[in-house]
Amino acid sequence: MIPTPIRRLARASRKFELTWRYGFNLGPSLHHRVRRPTLGTEGERVLRDLNRDGIAVTTVDALLGGSPLFPELVETVDGIQRERAAEIEAARAGANDPAIGKKTFLLEYLGRNPALDADSIHARLALQTPLLDLANAYLGMYSRLRYYNVWHTFASTAKARESQLWHRDREDLYIVKVFLYLNDVDLGAGPFTYAPGTHRKGRLRTEPAFHLEGRVKRTVDDQMAAVVPRDRWVTATGARGTIVLADTNGYHRGGLAREHDRVMYTCMYTSQASQSEEFFVRPASPPPRSGDPRAFALHR
């Protein structure tokens, strides 16, 4: 057994860029450097925005072109909604329950811990070349696919709480999350909102005031505005088919839907050194290891 002080030192060293990249992630970093992909015009634009601001907004048409996967995803989600209509309405009825620690305003269609199925539309969408190449380019290494799901956020009148307040995600030094809107999202549907420049690649180092919900730091709008003025916030409204990519290690909030529900597909990429909890129920036999970025993404 590894002594506790050594384990603590290893955890602490993951917080430093050099040891994180060239110690814990050396192999994936070298793989990416040797096989760096060509992103195309829209991909390069998205990467520039993501590097500079921590967030980029695009669309299915602009980034994925004529991919048949988006229509397949829409059809799959429509089927879930038809088959589970009673469950969805029951969840809607409890959306205003203020219980701390429970996102009663949110229903995860695939459950808290989705089964990782490489053949599912949810995995194939996350592993398609434009999205995976962008995640790898932002991290500067081959990345792991850590999560995917479909989120249904219900319109509610309860006080903002949990992820509806400003916060940072803690899964890794750099994180790429994708949010693909499956319905039109206006200000009344709780759009994803980001404070640009608060990611590790950004220039802003001032931390806002906060309060604790459990062990998580939460910040309200006025506290965030004292650090990043409101007119600089990126409020990602958009029509169905809008894609938001964000490094959620930067400050963000979302899901405060007051007038309309929001339905979206989401997935997350991190490094192999991430200390993230395990979200997936993984298959007993993972795919064989190879130099292919998709195979790498599917490993634990």
Detailed description of the structure:
The structure is a single chain. The protein has 300 residues and is of the alpha+beta class. It has one domain: Sandwich (Jelly Rolls), CATH 2.60.120.620. 33% of the residues lie in helices and 17% in strands. The protein has helices at 4-13, 17-24, 26-34, 40-53, 60-64, 69-83, 85-93, 121-127, 129-139, 221-225, 293-298, and strands at residues 55-59, 106-108, 144-153, 176-181, 193-194, 211-213, 216-218, 234-235, 242-246, 252-253, 262-270. The longest helix has 15 residues, at 69-83. The protein starts with a helix and ends with a helix.
Layout of helices and strands:
Layout: H1 4-13, H2 17-24, H3 26-34, H4 40-53, E1 55-59, H5 60-64, H6 69-83, H7 85-93, E2 106-108, H8 121-127, H9 129-139, E3 144-153, E4 176-181, E5 193-194, E6 211-213, E7 216-218, H10 221-225, E8 234-235, E9 242-246, E10 252-253, E11 262-270, H11 293-298
Antiparallel strand pairs: 1-9, 2-3, 3-11, 4-9, 4-11, 5-8, 5-10, 6-7
